[in-house]
Amino acid sequence: MQITDVRIRKVAKEGKMKAIVSITIDDEFVIHDIKVIEGEKGCFIAMPSKKSTDGEYRDIAHPINSSTRENIQKIILDRYEQALQEPDEEA
Question: Which InterPro entries would you find in this protein's record (predicted)?
Fold first, then answer.
């Protein structure tokens, strides 16, 4: 599995959420709404989730094992750091 595209949308407002990310896998499958969150020990990713009827949030797409999660997180956070160096686009 290769991540073939990463799209970063920086979040302008104050708060812990810093960006919303979409990734493309093998030029064939896209996952939208991955969040870059600033935590106490640095940034991490949160996979797209949905609030269930019991009030809990459940991931609707996620890696099956920790090595895949770490790989996806590293790629996203590296691209996020690059995006921070780019000037913000004017609308």
Answer: SpoVG (IPR007170), SpoVG_sf (IPR036751)
27/24 Cα distance (integer angstroms):
6
Q: Which two tokens stand for residue 30?
A: 């896209």
Q: Please report which confidence band the pLDDT of residue 86 belongs to, taking 50, 70 and 90 as the band edges.
A: confident
- Global pTM reads 0.87
Burial of 48 (0-12, 13-18, 19+ CB in 10 A): middle
> Hey, what are 9's tokens?
């949308």
User: Tokens at residue 70, please?
Assistant: 């770490």
Count the helices and strands in the chain (H runs, E runs).
1, 6
Nearest residue to 34 (alpha-carbon basis) of 24, 23, 43, 42: 23
